[in-house]
Amino acid sequence: MKMKAALMYGPNDIRVEEIDRPACPEGGLILKVMAVGLCGSDIRNLTSDSRRGNYPFVYGHEIVGVVDEVAPGLTKYKVGDRLFLFPGTYCMECDDCISGHSENCHNAEGLAGTGGFAQYVAVSARKIQLGGIYEIPEDVSFEAASLGEPLTSVYACEDNCKVGYPDTLVIIGAGPIGCFMSQLAKIRGAQKVIMIDINDTRLDMSRQFGVDVTINSAKEDPIEAVKKLTGGKGADKVISANPANSAQAQSIFMVKPGGLVVFFGGVPKGSLTELDTNYIHYNNIWIKGHFGASYIQSKKAFELAIAKNFPSSKFITHRLPLEEINHGIQLTKTGEAIKVVLFPNGMEQ
Questions:
Q1: CA–CA distance from 152 to each of 98, 260, 287, 298, 303 (Å)?
Q2: Is the alpha carbon torsion for 76, 82, 85, 86 positive or negative?
Q3: How far apart are CA 255 and CA 283, in angstroms?
Q4: pLDDT tens for residues 279-289?
Q5: Among the CATH numbers 3.40.50.1390, 3.40.50.720, 3.30.1490.20, 1.10.3210.10, which is that of 162-289?
Q6: Could you please report the per-residue DSSP string of 280-342?
Q7: Theoretical Cys-Cys bridge with 122: which of 22, 48, 250, 326, CB 3.0 to 4.6 Å?
Q8: Short-list 157, 135, 156, CA closest to 303
Q9: What superfamily in CATH does domain 2-151+293-343 come from?
């Protein structure tokens, strides 16, 4: 049996073709992908030699869908169940998992089977056993549920860093993640959110997510601007949510003495950020790297994404069939889109 999938053949070479539908794994299931978000990391992978020549490959990890087939003997799920898949699979046996930090699991696995930019994806028995699969209520749209995955890491970051009242928070990067960061910060009680980017379109769009002040760092010195906005003190916390080494280097000068800087966005592999460690030392600046989320945090983020008072419709600016994945990539890169959601099995649901 065949299915449509967006296959990556190399950097910027993504073709929607027919491939074999995955077989139902023993003890597992087949999920019909009803919606899949286009993530910034997907775009980075799709536009670079992310697989080092090992192509074709199917990306896509913000997956929600309907159970289409279950293996004999599987009773936990049935055909027709609406499911959200958290992409990580943690062993729940190592020291990190036991301590509540499953995001650092030594034995973590990716989501088994075909990637989400396809009509169907296989879910292994191990994934079902270890968790990270959440049921979607009937009154919640698939596209809203798909926000649970990108919101997960954002939720975990602000949870771990205790963003809240009365913080002044600087976010560097007004992409989808930056917008999630701002919205969640306001929900958590932050009093002022300052957004920095080089794209005026992104900055303007970010204002609808609780951003109080925007700074275009291509037009003015962002460090001086932040200091001016904070009475010369600096922000309580600064989150660098973009792939630029220069943003990380600047971030330490935007935070107050004793404040916290978070490196959230991954920079190009092999690149190094030059930091003034003397300045960090004498100003008691704390620096934290953030990646991923625990199972507990992923569940809370999913519940927030499907909450009736969460503005999911504002985040999803473009809804496209899988065949238009390349268009979705361009919309996101130019800043015209906040969040693109693809529909591998058709737009009508």
A1: 20, 21, 21, 5, 10
A2: negative
A3: 9
A4: 999 999 999 99
A5: 3.40.50.720
A6: HHHTT-EEEE-----HHHHHHHHHHHTSTTS-HHHHEEEEEEGGGHHHHHHHHHHTS-SEEEE
A7: 22
A8: 135
A9: Medium-chain alcohol dehydrogenases, catalytic domain (3.90.180.10)
| Phi and psi at residue 241, to the nearest 5° | -110, 60
Axis crossing angle, helix 176-188 with helix 148-160, rounded to the nearest 10: 50
DSSP string, 121-187: EEE-HHHHHH--EEEPPTTS-HHHHHTHHHHHHHHHHHHHTT--TT-EEEEE--SHHHHHHHHHHHH
How far apart CA 226 and CA 235 sit, in angstroms, is 7
The Cα–Cα gap between 349 and 345 comes to 9
Q: Closest by alpha carbon to 36, among 149, 151, 180? A: 149
Find the range with the poorest average confidence among 69-73, 98-102, 166-170.
98-102
In this structure, the strands spanning 168-172 and 235-240 are parallel
Q: What are phi and psi of 248, to 5 degrees?
A: -65, -40
pLDDT in tens, 162-176: 999 999 999 999 999
Domain boundaries, the chain: 2-151+293-343, 162-289
State phi, psi for 171 to the nearest 5 degrees.
-120, 125
Question: Cα–Cα distance between 95 and 89 in angstroms, integer?
Answer: 15
306 Cβ partners below 8 Å, 6+ apart? 136, 137, 140, 144, 145, 148, 312
> Residue 11 corresponds to which tokens in the numbers above?
């950097």
Q: Would 2-151+293-343 and 162-289 be classified into the same CATH topology?
A: no
In this structure, are residues 6 and 296 in contact, taking their beta carbons and an 8 Å threshold?
no
- The whole-angstrom separation of Cα 154 and Cα 223 is 24
Tell me if 229 sits within 8 A of 205, measured CB to CB: no
Per the CB < 8 A criterion, the answer to whether 7 and 14 are in contact is yes
Q: Please give the pLDDT value at position 106.
A: 87
Backbone CA torsion sign across 136, 347, 149, 46: positive
